[in-house]
């Protein structure tokens, strides 16, 4: 029996969507339970009264700042996280002999300086923000530098099956002054500096959205995953049921044909055992029995008109 891979795939997709929906729902519930600090001053008071054993996961909002900001080379923007990439764009020969466009990363550099959130009442330093969920870097500049064309360079590229187009340089930055919401574990060192970092177990977000928007977004994704799971499950069950029904009907028709063949064979043996039956009366029945025995094994309805000889 052939496995209905379409139905199995839909059911597996439904299970995956269900798990993603549960995960998004759990993340939304965790964010609802996070302590919200109205200001950095309130966060300091919460840390002083909080338990020293259990980690304190909080949500704070403020504007990005740094004592030693980075300056982008191309755009001149000031930021605390800067990513620079350079991609070489070129044309190359494919197997069909035509030219297709492709690219390769030549350079990828990421820089980060110590930075904090400031809301006017205090500062909270953020550690390890690049590994947080929801971090979005602004495209500061995007420049395409065309490759210089010389006879020697063009000849070498042609012999290698390449045509150099140029280099695309991109700068992405987290600018100073950007309003962010950070959710993570808050700790306070001996000198009173407050930091937020990734907790050992729990959420870690650095996002321009507020915590209410994050919760709403996760709730929407959880609902979307649930609907997708129900759709894939229903379609998968339909495909499996259809295949099972086809298999059942095929077996039923095969069983009925087998009964008809056996019944016809039994009737022919009974007639052959009788000696007083006239040959002229026997010939039409013999043709009918032969027709029953010669039914096509594929459709189980029509007489076969071809055979396969190994």
TrEMBL record:
Range of residues in the leader sequence: none
Alphabetical GO biological process terms: protein ubiquitination
Key words of the record: Membrane, Metal-binding, Transferase, Transmembrane, Transmembrane helix, Ubl conjugation pathway, Zinc, Zinc-finger
Family matches, as Pfam families: GIDE
Single GO MF descriptor: zinc ion binding
Primary location recorded for the protein, binned into one broad class: membrane
Transmembrane segments: 224-245
Source domain of life: Eukaryota
Subcellular location: Membrane
InterPro entries: MUL1-like, SP1/SPL1
Enzyme class: transferase
Catalytic reactions of this protein: S-ubiquitinyl-[E2 ubiquitin-conjugating enzyme]-L-cysteine + [acceptor protein]-L-lysine = [E2 ubiquitin-conjugating enzyme]-L-cysteine + N(6)-ubiquitinyl-[acceptor protein]-L-lysine
Domain E3 Ubiquitin ligase MUL1-like: from-to ranges: 87-236
An example Gene Ontology CC term for this record: membrane
Listed EC numbers: 2.3.2.27
Name of the featured protein: RING-type E3 ubiquitin transferase
Lineage, top ranks: Eukaryota, Viridiplantae, Streptophyta, Embryophyta, Tracheophyta
């Amino acid at each position: 029996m052939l496995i209905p891979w379409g139905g199995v795939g839909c059911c597996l997709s439904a299970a995956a969507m269900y798990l993603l929906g549960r995960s998004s729902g759990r993340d939304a519930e965790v964010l609802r339970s996070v302590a919200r600090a109205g200001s950095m001053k309130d966060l300091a008071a919460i840390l002083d009264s909080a338990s020293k054993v259990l980690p304190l996961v909080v949500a704070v909002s403020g504007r990005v700042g740094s004592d030693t900001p980075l300056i982008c080379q191309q755009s001149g923007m000031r930021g605390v996280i800067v990513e620079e990439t350079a991609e070489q764009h070129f044309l190359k020969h494919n197997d069909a002999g035509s030219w297709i466009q492709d690219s390769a990363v030549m350079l990828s550099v990421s820089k980060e300086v110590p930075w904090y959130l400031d809301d006017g009442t205090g500062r909270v330093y953020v550690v390890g923000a690049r590994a947080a969920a929801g971090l979005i870097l602004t495209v500061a500049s995007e420049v395409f530098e065309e490759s210089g064309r010389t006879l020697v360079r063009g000849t070498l590229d042609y012999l290698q099956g390449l045509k150099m187009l140029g280099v695309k340089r991109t700068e992405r930055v987290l600018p100073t002054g950007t309003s962010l919401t950070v959710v993570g574990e808050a700790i306070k060192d001996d000198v009173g500096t407050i930091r937020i970092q990734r907790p050992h177990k729990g959420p870690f977000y650095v996002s321009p959205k507020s915590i209410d928007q994050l919760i709403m977004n996760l709730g929407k994704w959880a609902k979307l995953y649930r609907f997708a799971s129900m759709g894939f499950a229903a379609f998968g069950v339909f495909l499996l049921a259809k295949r099972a029904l086809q298999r059942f009907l095929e077996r039923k028709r095969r069983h009925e044909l087998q009964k008809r063949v056996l019944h016809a064979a039994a009737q022919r043996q009974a007639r052959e055992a009788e000696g007083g039956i006239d040959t002229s009366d026997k010939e039409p029945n013999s043709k009918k029995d032969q027709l029953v025995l010669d039914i096509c094994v594929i459709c189980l309805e029509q007489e076969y008109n071809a055979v396969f000889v190994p």
